[in-house]
Amino acid sequence: MSIFEDLFSVAGKTALVTGGASGIGRMMAQALVEAGAHVIICSRKGDACEAVAAELNALDASGSAEGFAADLSSEEGVKAASNEVMSRCDKLHILCNNAGATWGSSYEEFPRAAWDKVMTLNVAAVFELTRDLTPLLEKTATDADPARIINTASVMGIKPIADGCWSYSTSKAAVIHLTEILANEMTDKRITVNALAPGPFPSKMTAFAIGSEEGAAKVGSLNPLGRVGRPADIAAATLFLCGHGGSYVTGTTIPLDGGYLVDTGDDGLFAEG
């Protein structure tokens, strides 16, 4: 067995990636498939999930994928998604809580609806889906190889700059705190809980700023390491936390930000000045 297989393989494991049809979720899903897992992808658009699953199944990879529609923006939607997952598998090794929403507006005009929508999906749904699927995770968890949960946070949940996304930044801070609480609660179940805190990565959510080569170059130039994130950055962190190499890590948040958090300036994530 190579050191890669020993430390980063997830061969034979089953994973769920919410919001897995695009952006960071798709990057996570592809990494897990290429490392040998069977990955269930869900998001609001079932046809997009099925299309991505087909693309991943067409790769020369040892894993596989399937997709279905799930709307996690309500308690009923979370319950329906949980039931669908349980109908597709009887045990789960990895849960990636990645689905999320944002809302941008000025301080003076920021609406209450932006808090209701974003906090419900980004925080409440993470808790509810994790709670509902914990029994499936417990079935695979062992001392030597715990089950794994990865929550997608953001550097905007760590550094106090809103960039007009008041509820989003606050929700991601809540995700980080929830990650730590769940990690503490899950130790006796042999389930690790960690979070990724990405900086700017290509996705539908960031397309307004880095959806073009020019935009990505501009935003990247404001980053200490001079670029925006790449799929390999997400893949490496995901496989570390899900493979044997990450079995002793829980309750932590890994920034994937190119140095944004250690930059002493006070500029926003996407805008100059």
Q: Could you explain the architecture of this structure?
A:
The structure is a single chain. With 273 residues, this protein is an alpha/beta fold. The protein contains 9 helices and 7 strands. It has helices at residues 3-8, 23-34, 46-57, 75-88, 112-138, 166-186, 207-210, 213-221, 231-242; strands at residues 14-18, 38-43, 64-69, 94-97, 147-152, 191-198, 253-256. Strands 3-2-1-4-5-6-7 form a 7-stranded parallel sheet, with helices on both faces. 45% of the residues are buried.
How would you describe this structure in keywords?
273 residues, alpha/beta, Rossmann fold, seven-stranded parallel sheet, 9 helices, globular
Order of helices and strands: HEHEHEHEHEHEHHHE
User: Which outline best applies?
Assistant: globular
Distance between the termini: 51 Å
CATH architecture verdict: 3-Layer(aba) Sandwich
Percent strand: 5-15%
SSE class:
alpha/beta
In DSSP terms, counting alpha (H) and pi (I) runs of 4 or more, how many helices? 9
Proportion of residues in helical segments:
40-55%
The major β-sheet equals: 7 strands, parallel
How is the largest sheet built, in terms of strand order?
A: 3-2-1-4-5-6-7
Query: Would you tell me which CATH topology applies?
Result: Rossmann fold
- Quick one: CATH superfamily? NAD(P)-binding Rossmann-like Domain
CATH class: Alpha Beta
Calculate Rg over CA atoms. 18 Å
Number of structural units classed as domains: 1
Number of separate strands: 7
What is the typical, i.e. mean, pLDDT? 92
